[in-house]
């Protein structure tokens, strides 16, 4: 019964990611309102509209489920399921029409996240995974890359919105990897960075100061694609942690040593 209930929620998550993605895509260049949560952390009316669409549907279909979403925070109920939602991961990119942003939706039960969906509306690429059922890009099953040497590693990272006022800013880590890795990209959507690890476009990804909605869907997609997700030091990653390392598993120990 629980497995059936989870699968239904997975199907709904896929549909909601596509619907929110369509809303986002048709509003590129049409932002009406912008506010700031920090000096370089903005939110648009499109973020809020996409989140309202997703949360409204969840509340209507699964009134006992709880929701944790980037813009509205936590909505607690007494059900066994929780949805973790980033309605628009890469808001600055979207606002400036830089084509790298996504919708990220994860669903968890008492055992953890069992479903993850990341949708890139511009490329119509939907990354998805269910616990023990593999990871997919649209209808094709995906696997992490086979790169085993960090010197050949194509890596991704990001920088915190607090980069101006924090001592640990990830810049030192970036410098270290510049001397060790083949190449590094900082594109601005943690969810898509992790999806790209899962399908072999990137070999590894690391970031500081992340939140559950940034990485919840990406984590299960990476793991179901054969990759590995931990903290920088290689210990188990929990959603309360602020540092994350995801890789194809083959370069994981090398990346972890550099990050310690």
What is the CATH domain class of the largest domain? Alpha Beta
So what's the overall shape? globular
CATH superfamily of the largest domain: Fructose-1,6-Bisphosphatase, subunit A, domain 1
**How many H/I helices?**
7
Strand fraction = 25-35%
| Structural class assignment | alpha+beta
> Termini, distance in Å?
44 Å
Topology:
Elements: H1 2-26, E1 34-38, E2 41-44, H2 45-61, E3 66-69, E4 73-75, E5 82-89, H3 91-95, E6 102-109, E7 112-120, E8 125-130, E9 135-137, E10 140-141, E11 154-157, H4 171-180, E12 183-185, H5 190-198, E13 204-208, H6 212-224, E14 228-230, E15 243-247, H7 252-259
Parallel strand pairs: 3-5, 11-12, 11-13
Antiparallel strand pairs: 1-2, 3-4, 5-6, 6-7, 7-8, 8-9, 9-10, 13-15, 14-15
Helix pairs in contact: 1-2, 5-6
Name the features.
single chain, 2 domains, alpha+beta, Fructose-1,6-Bisphosphatase, Chain A, domain 1, five-stranded mixed β-sheet, 7 helices
Describe the model.
By secondary structure, the protein is of the alpha+beta class. It folds into two domains: 2-141, Fructose-1,6-Bisphosphatase, subunit A, domain 1 (Fructose-1,6-Bisphosphatase, Chain A, domain 1, 2-Layer Sandwich), CATH 3.30.540; 150-259, D-Maltodextrin-Binding Protein, domain 2 (3-Layer(aba) Sandwich). The protein contains seven helices and 15 strands. It has an eight-stranded mixed sheet with strand order 4-3-5-6-7-8-9-10, with helices on both faces. A five-stranded mixed sheet has the order 12-11-13-15-14, sandwiched between helices. Strand 9 (135-137) and strand 10 (140-141) form a beta hairpin. It is globular, with a radius of gyration of 17 Å.
